[in-house]
């Protein structure tokens, strides 16, 4: 009997869409960090939205931040220690629930957000140029996510057969 060897799918196949999107995400984060470094922004690239939401709310628990960001509580809690160690946010115990911590921006956090805001105009202009070259990736990603939420991958597969 001849042994059959599996015929693996190439990693650049469309089956690995998530991998391709993740590669783009890492590339964007790495290049954004270079911009941040040049402009004196110390906020971790993947924590900017958390900082913006905290600035908007004034004070918030990790659960509040997770809900506003549409992320898991666990993901928010993974980001917080770095923001605290950088002196960008502080926390205090909740007066009504000692297990809960309430977070707020520090003066340094507010100054860093101001620097970040200066970067956003430059990044937005750079993305406008990129989108002129390749199409509006953001709209494409949003439409793709909406379509998958409307009809998940498993339902798409089941409707084939």
Automatic annotation (TrEMBL):
Domain annotation HTH marR-type: ranges: 51-100
Record-linked Gene3D superfamilies: Winged helix-like DNA-binding domain superfamily/Winged helix DNA-binding domain
Residue ranges crossing the lipid bilayer per the database entry: none
Any one GO molecular function term: DNA-binding transcription factor activity
Source species, domain of life: Bacteria
Protein name from the UniProt record: MarR family transcriptional regulator
């Amino acid at each position: 009997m001849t042994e059959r060897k599996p015929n693996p799918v190439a990693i650049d196949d469309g089956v690995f869409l998530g991998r391709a999107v993740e590669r783009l995400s890492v590339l964007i984060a790495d290049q954004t960090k270079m911009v941040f470094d040049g402009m004196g922004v110390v906020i971790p690239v993947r924590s900017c939205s958390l900082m913006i939401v905290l600035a908007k709310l004034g004070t918030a628990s990790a659960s509040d931040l997770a809900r506003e960001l549409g992320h898991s509580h666990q993901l928010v809690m993974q980001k917080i220690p770095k923001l605290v160690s950088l002196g960008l946010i502080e926390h205090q115990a909740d007066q009504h629930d000692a297990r809960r911590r309430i977070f707020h921006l520090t003066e340094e956090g507010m100054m860093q957000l101001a620097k970040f805001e200066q970067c956003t105009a430059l990044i937005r202009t750079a993305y406008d140029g990129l989108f002129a070259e390749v199409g509006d990736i953001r709209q494409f990603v949003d439409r793709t996510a909406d379509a998958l939420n409307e009809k998940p991958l498993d339902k798409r597969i089941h409707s084939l057969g």
